[in-house]
Design brief:
Blueprint (H helix, E strand, L loop, with lengths): L1 H10 L3 H8 L13 H12 L3 H7 L5 H13 L4 H11 L6 H10 L7 H8 L8 H14 L6 H10 L5 H17 L1 H8 L6 H12 L6 H9 L10
Amino acid sequence: MENAVRRRIFELRDEKYRQFHSKLFPGIDNILGVRLPRLRELAKELAKNDWRDFLATAQEDYHEEIMLQGLVIGYAKADIEEILHYVTFFVPKITNWGICDSFCNSLKITKKYKTRVWEFLQPYLLSRQEFQLRFGIVMLLNFYIDDEYIDRVLMLLDRAKHEGYYVKMAVAWAISICFIKYPAKTMAYLKNNTLDNFTYNKALQKITESFRVDKEMKATIRSMKRKIAVQPI
């Protein structure tokens, strides 16, 4: 099966898209240039057939081959514990934000089993591995910014300490979504948090970039920016 799947992926290549897409992933040189909607179509097709066999034999020399595995797990129909078993084996393969975020977005089974998946995510939210921690954070922003979980989400975002750029950006992104959905709670958090200056200021920036925040509030948010002292040489 693996050679047939690789042939399908190669048929979907788009050289102009590869050149564009590669710029978003500096340092990654195994991108073929398959647009995500086309990869999703292939993943849905594979998930309807013997997806377990596909995952057992899948090749992963290319960025898209790894991403495809994650999408198939997301689209597969199985018991939640079996899906989480496959998630456990896939997460260590996440080496960039594109694979992480597309994988998280595909795990819509989370909506049906929020309590179980919340429990499953907790070790990842304490991980010292950059993309394992980002996985946990992006899962929170995709599925848990709601009435039941908002307070716990803000607490976990504040605890997500990591020097990795992609963790900091995920935390900032998540906080901006929290603000859009729960402005009062998130404003209170922004006034009392332990975020590093970069993450805090990025969160403010992302809030001001949203079309769902009015001009007056954007002005208030901009006024909250922390000034970062320049260290003397």
